[in-house]
Structure formats: C-alpha cells, structure tokens
Design brief:
468 residues; mainly alpha; globular; 74% helix; single chain
Length: 468
C-alpha cells in the first residue's frame, strides 16, 4: 500500500511541478498542460501505480478535464488506423495460438534443424521470424509459442536451473532466443507493437512513410547479419555443454504425431496469413491500406469460424494495448503539433553547434540507444525520446530518412541490454537459466555488435536504397 502511494506521489508530483513552472513566452497554457499530463502519463507507465493502460486512460481524461484538449481530440487516437492495425494483428496471433499452427511451425523447424544445439536455436528463431511478420505481441510469440518448446527441449536434456544444470543447454538457448527476439522486433513493422507508433511519429514529424514493406526492406540486410553474428558470439563466449541435440528431433517428431494432420482451421489460417503478408508487402502496387488488409483478414477468420466473436472479446491484452497506444498516439501527436518539441530541439541543438551531421547523428543515436537502461519497455522509451531526438538530429542537418531509420531500429535493438528491456525479457530471465550478470554482459556485447552492424552495413544498404 505504501509502495503504491509512493508511486502516485511520483506521478502527481511530476505533473504538479511542470504545471507550476511558468511556460515559455511562446507556449500556450494548454500546450504546457498537455506536456505535464504527457510526462506524468509516461512516468506512470514506468512506475505503474496502475497498469499502463489505466494510466493512459487517466491521462486522456485529464487532458479533457483540464481543457488541454477538447474531448473529441482527446479520444481521436482510438480512431487512428495504426491503432486498429495493432489490434487486428493481436487477433491474428490469437488465431495462431488457438489453432496450434504456430506450435506446429516451430516443431517442424526443430525436426528439420534441431540435431545440433545451434541448429535447434535457429529453428526456433526462424519460427519467430515467420511469426514476427504479422504478430506484434512479443509476449504471444515468445511466451505462447517459442518459449514452451525451448523449455521442454532443455528439460529433455536435464538442463534445469533448480539443480544447477542450466549451463548444459538452457543458458545458451535462452540467451540466444532473447537476443534474436529484439533483432526480429527491429526487422518488421509488426515486430513489436510500438513500431507502429514510431511509424506514426516518422510520418507526422518528418514526412517519412515507414509502411510495412519499406520498414522490412530497409531492415532485412543488417538484420540477417545480426542474426548470424549474435548467436555465434553467444556460442563462442558461453558455449553450451551439450553440442548435439538429436533428442530434440525425436521430441519434435513425437509432438507432431500427437498434433496429427493439419486441421481445417490451420489450413484456413495459413491461407489468410500468407495472403495478408503478401498484400502488406505489395501495398505500393495495389494501394490497399495495411489496416484494411489486416481487418479483412480478421473478417475472413470470423466468417470461416477460425475465430469467433468471443475470441476477440477475450483477447484482453489486445484491448489493453488498444487503450494504451490509442491514448499515447494521440498525446504524442498533439504535443508534436505544439512548439514544445521545437523548443527542446533548439536547446539541445545549441550543444551540437559546429558539429558535422554525421558526428551529431552518431553521438545522439548512441545516447538514445543506451538510454534504454532507464526504461522497462520499448514503448516508454519511444514515446519519451523519439520525437525530441528526431527533431534535434534533423536540426543539425542529418537527413530525415536516415535519422528515422537509425532511431527506429536502435529503439528495438536497445531492448537487449537488460533483463527488463521489453515484455519477453522478464519471462526469459524469470526462468532462472541466465544470471543477471551474464544477461547484462551478453546484452552489452550484443549491443556493440548490433550498433556496428546496423551503422556500417545499414548505412551502406540505406545508401543503396536512396535514404540519403
């Protein structure tokens, strides 16, 4: 009780302190109140006296109550098409778990590639790669599909943290899967849910259209290199005691036998999934909006009874995200329409006066990346820092497209630093296979390698694509 009261004091204190400070001459009282509520909402989402979604809803109400925004504007985020895209993607992930198709795909990869420990890891990563192409819930992918299989396999080799045998297999496998997870978060617009917020910021603040195909094409080359390098780094530095895993193949074979032949709902879902992804990738040719495509896919799953209405209603995490992101998208957009971000950019840009834009971009991107040590989610990191850092970096002359890509991908990759960096992190860490010291050490080394890969290879690839 005292802990919760202290959290409320922190949140309300932030709002009160900012609101009591006289705003700059060219900032309206409404804009200053909006800033106070926005910061209090972000702080509330971090310390969580209530759940993140509840804090955002309170923020939306506060904006209308204190007349920072009219109620129509305060609720406008829930009409944003990007928020509905996220909601639809969560519903597709519900279908993947309900039908068992995701579980089947993972087992097929394990059966094909799981004879060696590194191959077993890549089998699960390839599964995650496929799922990340349309499932934005890292919790659903990792917690609902990938992790149960990984844990089952480690236990077949008697690798358990309870009896001190975690180094046999589990430590390597859990470390590899999580570090690859954050790379996959950066690879797809649907890699994790707040990527669509990043895309919205890019469009509003820099006029950059980070649609599904643009995001994927720009990320795929450095992503594949990171997916090759990072697992091998972990394998060399912290090798598993078990190098061969033939039991994983027999485990997958037995599990597939239990599943039986592919069911009708699985076939329908597979067809819908392939159609949705193809339509997303080819959007620039047919012109159908990504959200329309996703909602059409959901409609097809409802009509064919792969999903029923209760499945959608019971997907509580999707509705939590809807409330959370809808409110945050609105607040960030409304704040971006004021002069506040420009004032911040101007003050920080004065520090970088005289710097060439490549140096400024490098330093600011590194600060942005390692600031994630202070955040427990990618969403909190993005909503608090993306717009100001984008504005500052563009102000010193960096190309807008290059800046957007660097910050977008760094926002995701930085989640690998800690055991609380994004949703799956505490799930993996909580199993006890990886100590905090080893987790942070691997995270730091992986961060350096990822920064080098995405800065060198990424810059070259983005030059080819014409981003600068």
């Amino acid at each position: 009780m005292q802990s919760k009261l202290f959290k409320w004091i922190i949140v309300l204190g932030c709002a009160l302190v900012i609101s009591l400070i006289p705003p700059p001459a060219d900032v309206s009282r409404e804009a200053w109140t909006l800033l106070a509520v926005f910061i209090a909402t972000i702080v509330g989402s971090i310390v969580q006296p209530l759940t993140g979604s509840a804090m955002v809803l309170l923020g939306v109400v506060a904006l209308a109550l204190f007349r920072a925004l009219p109620i129509e504007k305060a609720l406008s985020g829930y009409a944003d098409k990007v928020v509905w895209l996220v909601l639809a993607a969560f519903f597709i992930s519900r279908a993947m778990i309900k039908t068992g198709l995701g579980h089947r795909i993972a087992l097929i990869f394990v059966r094909l590639m799981g004879r060696k420990t590194i191959g077993l890891g890549y089998a699960l990563v390839f599964t995650d790669f496929i799922l990340a192409s349309f499932i934005p819930s890292t919790g659903a992918r990792s917690g609902g599909i990938i992790l149960p299989i990984a844990r089952s396999v480690t236990e077949t080799y008697d690798s358990r943290p309870e009896d001190g045998t975690e180094a046999r297999l589990g430590t390597f496998l859990m470390s590899m899967l999580y570090q690859c997870e954050v790379i996959l978060c950066a690879t797809f617009l649907t890699g994790q849910a707040s990527n669509v917020i990043i895309a919205g910021f890019a469009a509003q603040q820099a006029g950059i259209d980070l649609n599904y195909s643009v995001w994927f094409i720009s990320a795929i080359i450095p992503s594949l290199i990171s997916l090759a390098v990072i697992p091998m780094m972990i394998y060399r530095l912290y090798p598993p005691e078990v190098k061969e895993t033939p039991n994983a193949v027999s485990f997958a074979h037995d599990e597939l036998k239990k599943l039986g032949p592919v069911t009708g709902p699985e076939k329908i879902l597979l067809v819908v999934f392939v159609a949705v992804v193809i339509l997303w990738i080819t959007a620039k040719f047919h012109g159908i909006d990504s959200t329309v495509i996703a909602l059409t896919g959901i409609s097809a799953l409802l009509v064919t009874r792969v999903l029923d209405w209760h499945d959608l209603i019971d997907e509580t995490h999707a509705w939590e995200v809807f409330i959370w992101y809808g409110g945050l998208v609105m607040m960030a957009s409304a704040l971006g329409e004021t002069v506040v971000p420009k004032l911040f950019a101007g003050s920080v840009a004065s520090i970088t006066t005289g710097w060439s834009w490549p140096v400024a971009l490098l330093i600011l991107a590194l600060v942005f990346f390692y600031a994630h040590y202070a955040f427990a989610s990618i969403t909190a990191h993005v909503t608090a820092m993306f717009i100001p850092f984008l504005a500052v970096t563009i102000a010193v002359g960096a190309p807008a497209g290059l800046t957007v890509l660097a910050l977008a991908y760094f926002a995701n990759l930085s989640a690998g630093l800690t055991h609380y960096g994004t949703t799956p992190a505490p799930i993996y860490f909580g199993l006890g296979y990886v100590t905090q010291k080893r987790w942070w050490t691997i995270g730091l080394i992986a961060s350096i390698l990822n920064i080098i890969i995405w800065s060198v290879v990424g810059l070259g690839w983005w030059k080819v694509l014409g981003w600068y």
